[in-house]
Every structure is written in structure tokens, then in C-alpha cells.
Write a structure and sequence with these properties.
Length: 348
């Protein structure tokens, strides 16, 4: 990855921050406070990390004004900003510029009949594009990608190695598909067989539709619909190793963390957060802005704005109380056993 050097003066200008210290101090990398070296930019966003700041060797630190007294120990060069994490969004793309890409079609790529695109595009080695595939402008397709018949990609889409989009997949603009993503495979739908016969497969003829500005992590799978479409709303970000079943509707701006699983025909409204290993049963609705915490198991509808935990998922405070009661149970059992022993001793 190509890295450039950046001065404290430039960082202050990019972040609209207040510079404290020399404007000519230079950084050529980013690292957390406890591992930052004398050429790194770091950041202090919470008071609990002040101890690391005071011992840090970082060249420059983005920090909140209320966290660092003027005479505090720690790096002398600081850029005071409202939100260090947000400030990083302005600095990191300058420090780590995106590598330039070259348009063109690799000689080993297989291009089906009727494929059309808008220049410029890049199609990498051993990519396979089926019949009537449509690509927008600035599409980048890496090595080993397979796009089935009729797949459509919008403008500025980046498809990493070994992504597979089955026929019936439609991808919006400014989408990133990381390595190993599978879009539009058949959903898991069967009718039980009778009298010992094997289950019969339900035809999966719907589409898989991905909205604009979506990012999908490595090895995530999103099934096509059976008779309806599976839809991922605009701005939603999906982590690695997530499974989304057929006919699901995922709203806009949702955040879905790794190993979450969503069963078929579930409706997730806008701005929902699903933490890692959350599991959603089929045919449930998750209300707008709701949060399902780590390993939460949802078997019924969740109200808008609610935060739920545990299995089966319930209100977060209720779950914490139940867990606290469970942990106290061992002590209660100890007390009960002691009472029984005293009673037995008294009888003797």
C-alpha cells in the first residue's frame, strides 16, 4: 500500500482543527496510541485512553479539547478536533491514497454475448461475464469474478476477487463487494416429502437487488428471492460471513456485523444495527433504529428503537437483570445447602 507523508499543518487544515505544537512535524502512518512510533499519527477519543496518550511516542495526535490539559505529558504536537474518529476520515485517504487502476479487459477474461459497458471499466484475469451483462462507468472487476447472465452493475462498483453474482442480481452504484461474496444463490426452500420421499425444492425465481452505496464483506451470502425479491437498501454496510435468506428486505443505512444470520422473509427496517452472531428467525420484523446485541436470538417482532439481548431476545435491561439473578442463584443454593446441613445437625 502506497503511503505519503503529511504535516501537522496539513492535518489541521483537512480537519478544521486547532494545531498545538510545530506545524512542520510529519507523519507517514496511523497507529493506536500504545503502538504509535515517532512517525505515526494517532488519536485520543476517550478519557480512558489518556494514560496511553501520556506515554505515547506518536508524532501527531488528534484529540478532543476536553481530554488533554495544556500541560499534560504526551506528544507535544496535537490537533484539537471535535471528533477524532470523524477527523480520521478526512486524513486517512490523503495519507493512504487509493492505488490507481488501469482500464481494460484482460486477455483471459471470458465475455458473453450481448455484454455492454460504459468506459472506463477494468475486467481482470479469468473473470467470466455471462450473456447480456450490463456494467456502468468505472466498474472494476478483479480476478476470477463470475457474473451470471443478465447481471447489472451500476457506476463505480468495485468487485473483489472470486465474487459470484448469479443471474437475476442487480447491483446499484458505488457498491463494494469483497472477496468471496455470493449474491443471488437459491434460498433454502423445500416442501417436506411424504411417505419417505425426499423433500421437494421450491423454485427460486426472484431477484437479488443491492442498493446504492452498499458494502458487503468477504464470504457473505445473500440469497435470491423465491417468488419475491431479496432487497438490500441503500447505504447499508454488511460485515464478513453474514447470511441473508431469501425474500428478506433490509432497509437503508443498516449495520450488520460478522456472522449474523437472517432467515427468509424477514423485514429489517432502516437504521437497524445487528451485532455479531445475531440470529433472526423467519417472517419477523425489526423496527426502525432497533439494536440486536451480540448473539441475540430474535424469534418475534422487535419494536422500533428497542435494544434487545439474549436468547430469546428480550429488552436489554430485562436480560441483564435475568443474567444477574442467574449468577446469584449459585450463592442462594450455597445458602440453602448450609441451612439444610444446620437442620440435619440440629436433628442429631
Amino acid at each position: 500500500m502506497r503511503v505519503r507523508r503529511i504535516t501537522a499543518r496539513e492535518i489541521a487544515a483537512l480537519t478544521n482543527g486547532q494545531l498545538v505544537g510545530s506545524p512542520d512535524v510529519v507523519a507517514s502512518g496511523v497507529a493506536p496510541l500504545d503502538r504509535a512510533g515517532p512517525e505515526d499519527l494517532s488519536f485520543l477519543a476517550a478519557r480512558r485512553y489518556l494514560q496511553y496518550f501520556q506515554r505515547s511516542s506518536a508524532a501527531i495526535v488528534l484529540c478532543k479539547a476536553d481530554l488533554v490539559p495544556p500541560d499534560s505529558a504526551g506528544p507535544a504536537c496535537r490537533v484539537v478536533v471535535r471528533d477524532p474518529h470523524e477527523a480520521l476520515l478526512a486524513v486517512v485517504p490523503v495519507l493512504y491514497p487509493e492505488p490507481a487502476w488501469e482500464p481494460g479487459v484482460h486477455r483471459t477474461a471470458v465475455i458473453g454475448q450481448g455484454v455492454v459497458w460504459q468506459e472506463p471499466v477494468a475486467i481482470g484475469p479469468y473473470a467470466v461475464l455471462g450473456r447480456d451483462v450490463r456494467l456502468g462507468r468505472n466498474v472494476r472487476i478483479a480476478a476470477g469474478v463470475v457474473l451470471g447472465d443478465g447481471v447489472q452493475l451500476g457506476d463505480d462498483v468495485e468487485v473483489m476477487p472470486h465474487v459470484v453474482c448469479y443471474s437475476g442480481t442487480i447491483v446499484g452504484s458505488r457498491v463494494i463487494l469483497h472477496a468471496g461474496v455470493r449474491l443471488g444463490a437459491d434460498g433454502f426452500g423445500y416442501i417436506p416429502g411424504k411417505n419417505g420421499a425426499a423433500p421437494r425444492k421450491i423454485p427460486q425465481v426472484g431477484r437479488c437487488i443491492i442498493g446504492d452505496d452498499v458494502e458487503i464483506g468477504a464470504n457473505t451470502t445473500i440469497d435470491r428471492g423465491s417468488v419475491d425479491d431479496t432487497v438490500i437498501g441503500p447505504g447499508t454496510k454488511i460485515d464478513n460471513l453474514v447470511q441473508i435468506g431469501h425474500n428478506c428486505r433490509i432497509g437503508a443505512r443498516c449495520l450488520i456485523a460478522g456472522q449474523a444470520g437472517i432467515a427468509g422473509s424477514t423485514y429489517v427496517e432502516d437504521d437497524v444495527f445487528l451485532a455479531g452472531q445475531a440470529g433472526l428467525a423467519d417472517h419477523v420484523t425489526i423496527g426502525r433504529g432497533a439494536r440486536v446485541t451480540v448473539q441475540g436470538g430474535v424469534i418475534g417482532d422487535i419494536a422500533a428503537g428497542a435494544t434487545v439481548s439474549g436468547y430469546p431476545a428480550r429488552a436489554h435491561r430485562e436480560f441483564l437483570r435475568a443474567q444477574g439473578a442467574l449468577y446469584r442463584l449459585a450463592l442462594i443454593v450455597d445458602d440453602l445447602e448450609a441451612l439444610v446441613r444446620r437442620a440435619d445437625d440440629a436433628e442429631r
